[in-house]
Design brief:
The chain has 791 residues and is of the alpha/beta class. β14, α14 and β15 form a beta-alpha-beta unit. It is built from 28 helices and 27 strands. InterPro entries: ABC_transporter-like_ATP-bd, P-loop_NTPase.
Amino acid sequence: MGKATSGDRHTADSHDLIRVHGARENNLKDVSIEIPKRRLTVFTGVSGSGKSSLVFDTIAAESQRLINETYSAFVQGFMPTLARPEVDVLDGLTTAITVDQQRLGGDPRSTVGTVTDTNAMLRILFSRLGTPHIGSPKAFSFNVASISGAGAVTMERGGQTVKERRSFSIVGGMCPRCEGRGTVNDIDLAQLYDDSKSLDEGALTIPGYKAGGWNYRLYSESGFFPADKPIGKFTKRELQDFLYREPVRMKIAGINMTYEGLVPRIQKSMLAKDHESMQPHIREFVDRAITFMVCPDCEGTRLKEGARSSKIKGISIANACAMQISDLAEWVRALKEPSVGPLLTALGETLDSFVEIGLGYLSLDRPSGTLSGGEAQRTKMIRHLGSSLTDVTYVFDEPTVGLHPHDIQRMNNLLLRLRDKGNTVLVVEHKPETIVIADHVVDLGPGAGTAGGSVCFEGTVEALRTSGTVTGRHFDDRAGLKDTVRKATGVLEIRGASTHNLQDVDVDIPLGVLTVITGVAGSGKSSLVHGSIPAAEGVVSVDQGAIRGSRRSNPATYTGLLEPIRKAFAKVNGVKPALFSANSEGACPTCNGAGVVYTDLAMMAGVATTCEECEGKRFQASVLEYHLGGRDISEVLAMPVTEALEFFDTGEARTPAAHRILERLSDVGLGYLTLGQPLTTLSGGERQRLKLATHMGDKGGVYILDEPTTGLHLADVEQLLGLLDRLVDSGKSVIVVEHHQAVMANADWIIDLGPGAGHDGGRIVFEGTPAELVATGGTLTAEHLAAYVGE
């Protein structure tokens, strides 16, 4: 075998395929396919059909696991452990680099510059060329605090104990006031208590601090200050103890408790939590009591005075990070300094990659948590664009998310460039504009959830068009412009909007209709919607942010559906509702209601085995003896939404409260999800639609949706348009930030921002009906919409 005779192919060149045999991750039904290497393969299919399970959870996950196994056991102990995916054979794998849409770290100190390592290069540049010279690269970092110390060090040397005096100091760049965050929060004390009252009279006005409760008694019975004296008359010492005292252990009413000042206690219990996951009344209190403002010492730059004083050609590192990246790239190119030549070349190439990928409008000091899913994904791509590695498998998750049709063309060119360097590119995608450039298409389906998980089609794009699969049938679908548009019932006025790159924008957003806000990536759409529309009563905003939830959370717990179901079970069986919760009294004692038992194997992947006691049902055996409509609680949680809709509509199981929530889930196209599916397994598009379903019952009159077509198949977009129309017809105002031409064509009113991105954008270039936009033309959106509707 191994030898190649003249004219024959060398055996080493015969491995041209990635072979997957018997994949069973999530909903995949024993899938076997062959994927050509060094080609661009697009995976498509309706939402929930198993694309991510095949590409990310099987191919990419196994590649990552095999690479990790090449390291020593010592190194593996520090790495995340990965289990082998459910698959019989995976052959011909190459190193996989995944570029997904997970939002970048939400840490307040994480910025575009730190995530892409551009800041690291800039810090070295300033430490070498900046005048006056202030120290090493650490002196320019807002993540390093300045510290110094001195003292005696004791050590053993030559059998004797020797003492030596040592001192050290580190010069960091962190602003001491805001600790490198750029903002400081002040607590409005007037919102915490009424200083005209004493504690005995119920002075505290914080949620959860009711007179007589433990939180309240901690202060009223601490003995540090008189409980019958109005807070306004406390001495300086008493007020200090009340508000800021360090934690101390003490007995109150015979129980050991820790007393600490009111302000640090509020900061730990409320400010440290994720704002979105708070209960509404606590969130309202935090919004009222906490004011965030730009740090007055560093003016929001996060850097202390010394770091800002060192300059190159009049520019400090703070100025450089605040520049638009396209401008910064020109500034770096103009620096001619042979001593740091290689650094300038590398920095210039990274900044050029930003511009090339369509992110030149960002600045390096932009907090990474504020980037949209699409921007985050493109930021991650920057590292790979200039890479000299070849024969790598790049795995992309909908790279066109958040991209205007004008920008999709550039993204396509990048994908083709990666392929032409000799790499295998696997893309999960719904947009026809990107599917068209594929060398090979794999269509999964035919449905979603349990109805999906099979390969319906493999082959070329041409063959897909005539294949008769759901994707093939809808491939050339085009929504037409509406003949008549609804009339506005009022307007939402925005005046002088100047968030981020908006240039003093005045606009009236019509109410009572479907308004689409569009424009190229970075033109200011999100800034206009999230920064300028007042978060008043009745405004419901649904974004694509991750849902906070453990693997114990599922659609039933998240939407509040489990509450009426538990009550219905309890009522019919005459027992208490807590028994029907796997997180409460009904939990199987062996696995604590998780359904699986985890065994940690140190540096090897932990093993999750189905709990033998409850067989993965998560409940005690005694709880499963109680039935409702002939089903036990574990069988109800295993039902898909569509089946549960019928179940809770009639007979003994009829539960109107549960039925209402299930109808909403079905309306947003999640009929295939099972009620007990862990939230951690949902895709980005599914998460957003789940949020939309929970908000549909809100009293709000104005709905703001951020790219709701993300992760939606062509066939599902029609269903979403129907849902948006129903919302408007029921008297709601719907404002959608969107690039999908079908949504634009279906709008009653379009507001187009531009003309470009960053400081070339931020202006309104068109407002009117879709038909007027196509007729007048002149903007990038108009060109693409006209081409789409075939005008």
